[in-house]
Amino acid sequence: MKAIWFFENTNLLNLLCPHKFKKHKENHRFLNFRKYDYIYFESDAATKIYLIVHGKIKIGAYTQDGSEIISAILSKGEVFGEKAILGEVQRTDFAQAMDNTTSICPIGVDTMHEMMRANKSFSLKIYKFIGLRFQRMERRLHLLLFKDTKTRLLEFLNDLKEDYGHYCPKTGDMVISHPYTQKEIANLIGTSRPTLNILLNELKKSKYIDFYRSKIRIKITNSVS
Q1: Which tens digit of pLDDT belongs to each residue from 122-154?
Q2: pTM attached to this predicted model
Q3: Beta carbons within 10 angstroms of residue 188's beta carbon
């Protein structure tokens, strides 16, 4: 199962960016943002989709009491705002830059529809991508509602393994080189950073994982209870 909060392990920038299409290249420009800048807010008009060229983007929403719920943290080559393709008129979430050197590629909905009409294979890829996004969000919601924090962490580690892991033939372990901070991981699985640290250290003590900075080593020969 692929990760719910990440897209397939492919650089969608190479597939979707209008810079790749001669007809749209001349008038196309990247947009630059600083950390904490908003790309769009809830209830803004949904007229574009966006591809990440550099940096990270946080996707989320606010509850009635003002609490923030993070649904995704996306990085280079990933896309957001894609519900506009299906006819979303107003945004139901917000998108916020998480780095000082964030750069994104905007694509107007009309431009995207034009590219999709001109290329059936391209159109099918877009709809497949949107379908996978919805499946992953449903799975993530199920985890947050019905699973305990440790189970959510283990599922997250399994997803990281799918997206960023590589097999180490020397040790037989799976080594994950990922782009997320512990705070970001805690936000994505719906817990606090101190609780995440406790759980990670428990897994390390049980010799299921080892971790340091942006790398996690999953010891394949061991299981976790």
Answers
A1: 888 888 888 888 888 888 788 888 899 999 999
A2: 0.77
A3: 23
